Amino acid sequence: MENAANESQEQPAEATPTPAETTPGPAAEPSVAEGLDIGSQAPEAAAEPRLPHIVRGRIEADGTAVSTGRRKTAVARVRVRKGNGKITVNGREFEDYFPVERHRLLIEAPLKATGVYGQVDIWVRANGGGVNGQAGAVILGVARAIQALHPEQHGALSDGGFLTRDDRMVERKKYGHRKARRSFQFSKR
Question: Rounded to 5 degrees, what are φ and ψ at 81?
Fold first, then answer.
């Protein structure tokens, strides 16, 4: 036992060089990583816009972007063209059709995120569902139409979550139950 303890305490004759001895002097070339902060990106990576893999909209001959958005059971067919910012939903003014400010702000969000707010006219035909579902369908339709017009805005639309289809639907009623999951009242006797 004592021999094993003595052997582990012995130092090797040749010592390995310390990191201070191996680093080159000031005459060496500075590395690229020295100029970057932790968490920052190289300038060439940030300059290139993210382009979409799939564009779910089309551009007609007159320059109008056409797309469809869906949410729950609502469907919105959207047409976007260059203009002065007029939004028409089912033949009515935007503010009249969506009187709740929350819905209007949500629908305007993809326009503001891409910087085209007030520069395009939007025509929407929405049917099915309720007000919330129609507002969600219009958001998706507007975002897809903007992406068709301006593919370089894909990154801004994707980061805002405007291009993601919310696929949650009402669960169907099952037989033997009162509702989708609620059972009939149980009577022990």
Answer: -145, 160
Q: For strands 120-127 and 87-89, give the pairing.
A: parallel
Q: Do 110 and 139 form a contact (C-beta atoms < 8 A)?
A: yes
11: alpha, beta or left? (left if phi > 0; alpha if psi -120 to 50) = beta
Residue 154: φ, ψ to 5°: -60, -40
For tokens 């993809």, what's the residue?
110
Q: Name the strand (E) or helix (H) holding 20.
A: helix 19-22
Over residues 8-61, the pLDDT tens digits come to 555 555 555 555 555 555 555 555 555 556 655 555 555 567 777 777 889 999
- 124: burial class by Cβ within 10 Å (0-12, 13-18, 19+)? buried
